[in-house]
Amino acid sequence: MSIKLYGMTYSNYYNMVKAAMIEKGIEYEEVHVLPNQEADFLSHSPMGKVPCLETDQGFLTESGVMLDYIEAIGTGASLYPADAWQKAKAQELIRYLELYIELPGRRLYGDVFFEKPAPDSVKADVKAALEKGFTALAKIAKYDPWLAGKDFGYADLYFLYSVSVVARVCRATWDWNVMEQYPEMKDLIARIKERDSVKKVTEDQAAG
Known about the structure:
The longest helix has 23 residues, at 84-106. The protein has a 4-stranded mixed beta sheet, with helices on one face. With 208 residues, the protein is of the alpha+beta class. It is globular, with a radius of gyration of 17 Å. It folds into 2 domains: 4-76, 3-Layer(aba) Sandwich (Glutaredoxin), CATH 3.40.30.10; 84-196, Glutathione S-transferase Yfyf (Class Pi), Chain A, domain 2, CATH 1.20.1050.10. Helix content is 59%, strand content 8%. β3 (52-55) and β4 form a beta hairpin. It contains 10 helices and 4 strands, in the order βαβαββαααααααα.
């Protein structure tokens, strides 16, 4: 089976999918491409977004879909809990991270990382959303020792590649130290960064 991962090493979702493939023992080839609206790329990724995944059967888009595919074809232990309720709770955590932390935080990525200033009104809206999102996440996260409980899984990859970026946004925009407010987050990020898969992604990111 031939797998190609399209995107760039400074995309948090690209790195999340890449780390998952390493965790699941999947061999892959990387194809560097930026998000774009060129016709050829849109034939692979209809919204022009990265990452996308090329398989022998065609292309897949959307990170959550790709992770489920990786889970299905990969080897080794599942990165979802075996118990149906616990799996649903892990997926709930993932949705909270996507919708209530990464998505609002993304509205200020241009301002913080790409010198594209955002209006104060947008910053105020984002801060209100993130305060609510972090409060909600704290109510359902386990940290026992992983985000969803005793076993490392996809929720932890979502956590690392969402919270660590949004925390930088918070610090740069409002001098808001999220990790100080929620020290269990800082501890979890440190544990996740010890995974061989994450170390490999970080090394490649630095080299790139």
